[in-house]
Amino acid sequence: MESEKLGPAPNSLDAIVALIQQLRGEGGCPWDxxxxxxxxxxxxxxxxYELVDAIASGDARAVCEELGDVIFQVLFLVVLFTESGAxxxxxxxxxxxxxxxRRHPHVxxxxxVTSAADVRENWHAIKKxxxxxxxxxxxxLLDSIPASLPALMRSYRVSERAARTGFDWNDLTxxxxxxxEEWAEFKTAASQIRDETSRHVAxxxxxxxxxxxxxxxxxxxxxxxxxxxxAINKFEKRFRYMEQAFMRQGTELEAASxxxxxxxxxxxxxxxxxxx
Length: 276
What we know:
Helix Hairpins, 12 helices
């Protein structure tokens, strides 16, 4: 494709918009032409997860590539809504700048803050005022938490918002005691599974454990999603190490005895360090 067909300079976001418009225009791509905001949302989520993986890998080149893919999806959505007459890029940028300025009165106004916690409190207070201004009289603090968030992330956000009202445990000891209580309730429910109804009861109790553990993470000061991701990555690395060890011996992992697996796992634990 000749570069002049793309219009603006390649380092401009306008170049991506021009590219998308060409893909959707006459003589463009049938796949791009049939996309809708609903269909693109799936791809946006996928690209976001790929970006998060790239960030976790520490590979700057991968992050650069995945950022480009995310930006492409975002701009594709802007083009679709521009075509429908709902809004255009100017509306998006202007609205975002106005919101960011409004929510940073300590930078663009006379508000005084002394810590990041102060900033966070101001942010949420301003959001509440915005809801009132928009006549959201029955608005809940939980309204802005996307229902489609992964459950562990959502549990953290829901409990964080609820705690902001004072509806919270007093300290970590109380939360840990609640974990023990929920664990005991789950053990009882699990021992009484006889049918789908009792299995559902056990599942609800299991969910209570996870929800409470997300609060433990909040009290300690880390995000449960980050902690779980690190644990999964650690397991994967050790499992792959174990697989490779059996392959070097000419043995399929599935054919190994449990004792052999346990010994190989212990070796993997010694040789594969935990993430720091």
